[in-house]
Structure prediction request, 327 residues.
Amino acid sequence: MPFKEAAIVVAVSGGADSMSLLTAIDDLRNRKKFDLRILAVHFDHKLRPDSHTDCDFVADFARSHHFEFAHGEWKREAGGNLEQSARDARYRFLRKTAESIGAGYVLAAHTMNDQAETFLMNLIRGAGPDGLSGMKPRRALALATPDDEDEPFLPFAEPEIVVVRPLLRWAKRRDTENFCLEHKIEYCRDPMNEDLNFRRIWIRKVLIPMMEEANPKLVESLCRTAELMSEPPASAGGQIVLPKPAAGSSLDLAHLKTLEKSTLFPVLRDWIKLNRGSLRGIGTKHTEAIYNLIHSQKSGRVAELPGGDAIKHDGRLSWSPRTPEKG
Prediction:
C-alpha cells in the first residue's frame, strides 16, 4: 500500500472486523504513519427492515473521526443466488466508488475465520485449486463473477484497483471483537449472522465447531492449507511450468494427452477461465469431463459445462460459449 499522495477506500459493514480495521487506520493516521485520502464506504444490502441503522452508525463514526463517507444501496433483482448476488453487488459498488475518487486500493476486513469458511464453502461445492486457495491478501478488483466464493475477478480491468486484506493472515474474529471491547469501540451485530439458512452461517455455527472437536486449531489449519494450495505445484525436478493458453485459442489434443492429471487440470482451468471469464460454478467434475473427452477415442464429442461447451474436433479442443438461461 502507498503511504502518501494516494486515495484508499475502506469497506465498512459496521461489524467488529471492519470497525477494528477503520479504528487501526485512524490510529496510524493520527500517528503520522501515512498521509492518504481515506474514504469509508458502507453498502446496504437492504436485507433487513432496519439495515439503515448500520449505515447510520458507520456514517456517524466516520464523521466523528474525520473520515470521508459514502454509501450505497442494493436494488435487488429477482432470481439468482442471494449470497452471490449480494457479494457481486457490493464489489461493483466498491469498484465504482474507488474509480470515482481515483483510489487504487480497496481495504476489506476479512479475517482468518472468513478464510476458513471460504475454504470449506469451496471444498463442499467441489472447487479446484483456485477455489481452495481461498482469498488473497492482495488481488485485482473488478466486476465479473469471481472464480471462488469470495474473490472478485475480471481479466483486462482498467484501471487496476486492488483489494487489500490487512487482517487476513493473522487476525481471527475473536481478536477483532476483543480489540473493540478493550478500546470501547461499539460495533453492529447483524441478526442475519444467526440465520442457518445461509450456507456460510451454517458452516460458521455448525460445521466448524463440530470439526474443532477433532482439531481445536482448525481455523489455522484450513488457512494454512489454503495458502499451500495457492503455491505452484512442484515436482522432483523443481517447479512445473504450465503452458498458458490464450483466450479464444484451441488446444492441441496430442499434447494434452501427454500431460498427467496434476499438470493437465490447471491448464484446463486456465483455459476455461480465459474463455468463460471466470470459474464460478466450475468444479472438479467439469474438469474431469474434459479430461475424459480428451482421452475418448471418438471425435466430435462435446463436454457440456456451465456457460459453454468444450468440443473435440480435428485434433483440437475448442471452446464454444453458451448464453446463460435467465431465471
The first strand starts at residue 4 and ends at 11.
